[in-house]
From TrEMBL:
Protein name: Carbonic anhydrase
Function: Reversible hydration of carbon dioxide.
One Pfam family named in its UniProt record: Pro_CA
Cofactor note: Binds 1 zinc ion per subunit.
Organism of provenance: Jiulongibacter sediminis
């Protein structure tokens, strides 16, 4: 059997097991979704949102890209964000980074990587913003870990700086924004930053819109 056929076989077995455990499971799935969470994570194969949080399909709306970035010109991310906030009315958005992130590692190097450089340039900017703190860390692994954390914090702020999130805050009490980091060595997630809905103090006034 080809390796990819194994995926299809596993899928069949999963669908059968789900239907046996709950005969209405797929009927409910097909009827629609109302997830409470939007997860913006890294595309890394070791950081799957539902597996590591033991959640069922339907629980988390997911967007993943290299190094879990929230880039204001990224139409893909913005479309996901707008749909999640304005139509699904998610209560929480979590940006989830992970230690050992290849995207963050690439940003710390001077390697010429083509298109990847354009993307991780956003993380280089985070590095420069926190250069003093980062370069005071003599151990390279510790510096790498800290940049992973600072990158997550910046991406959470980037969310708060969107008109999509600010419009939602004006209307109500959601979404709350969270910055988490997954530790691959233990499989556990650490909370490192959060912005409660409406907390505009967390972002510079220049990013606040007259909404
Ligand atoms: Zn990564």
């Amino acid at each position: 059997m080809k390796k990819y056929d194994q995926l299809l076989e596993s899928n069949k077995a999963w669908a059968k097991a789900q239907a046996e455990a709950d005969p209405t499971f797929f009927e409910k799935m097909a009827a629609g979704q109302s997830p409470e969470f939007l997860w913006i994570g890294c595309a890394d194969s070791r950081a799957p949102a539902d597996k590591i949080t033991q959640t069922d399909p339907g629980s988390i709306f997911v967007h993943r890209n290299v190094a879990n970035l929230v880039v204001h010109t990224d139409m893909n991310m913005l479309a996901v964000l707008q749909y999640a906030v304005e139509h699904l009315h998610v209560k929480h958005i979590m940006v989830v980074g992970h230690y050992g992130c290849g995207g963050v590692k690439a940003a710390m190097s001077n390697a010429e990587l083509g298109l990847i450089n354009k993307w991780v340039r956003n993380i280089k900017d985070v590095y420069v913003d926190h250069k003093k703190e980062l370069e005071a860390i003599t151990n390279e692994d510790d510096r790498f870990d800290r940049l992973v954390e600072l990158n997550v914090v910046q991406q959470v702020k980037n969310l708060a700086e969107t008109s999509i999130v600010q419009k939602a805050w004006k209307k109500g009490d959601y979404p709350h924004l969270h910055g988490w980091v997954l530790e691959l060595k233990t499989g556990t997630i650490k909370k490192i930053y959060e912005i409660e809905a409406g907390e505009l103090d967390e972002i510079d006034p220049i990013y606040r819109f007259d909404i």
